[in-house]
Sequence to fold (241 residues):
Amino acid sequence: MLRVENLHVAVRDRLILKGVSLEVGDGEVHVIFGPNGSGKSTLAMAIIGHPDYRIVSGRIFFDGQDITEKPIDERARMGISIAFQNPPKLHGVKLKDLLARIASENGVGERFLEIVDRLNISQEHLNRYVNVGFSGGEIKRCELAQALASNPKLIILDEPDSGVDVENLELIGRFLSESLRGRSALIITHHGYILRHLKPVKAHVLIDGVIACEGDPDQILNRIMKDGYRWCERCRLMRGV
Fold:
């Protein structure tokens, strides 16, 4: 579903990604670990085609097509969706109107109301402007509703477990464990709390713009929790990347 080949990405004049390669199969869920500033969000932005993230070299393939040069709106129509770590406030745009528009344009129709119900989004929130006055957990749940209302083939979740209390994390985790069945997903996380609810098939550790190591998600997370990312840095040096 997704193939990234030797991707180098710059923001302004600074090179952030320095040769990232990975593949996510059809219906597979993968997780990306990494310390702050390692390039995790840069990778997500490059995949969706954000214009501020310049691809210096390398290619991105999605669903059998080279999308490296395609604009962000075309990638979205092809079936790539993202739940941002820090989505913007949209003054003047009601959440219910945005969700209805997204769902209508992607063949979901009123089924988006099922997503709203499962994420415990109240009528009060639906009638408010998007993310205006929302708590951290409310923002995460509403962002997920928007991402899933587009019925994506691939969904990228950028830090879905950051800034979320235990109750909201439990609700989000249950929702994702059901919603990601049969769907390709790339989950970016720093501390891995969301993995209490999800079972990715593969983990990738991103350090200083390169993939330091890959493997079983539980084993890698346990090693990170025990030894920190210093262990992954040693792996990177041993591999010569």
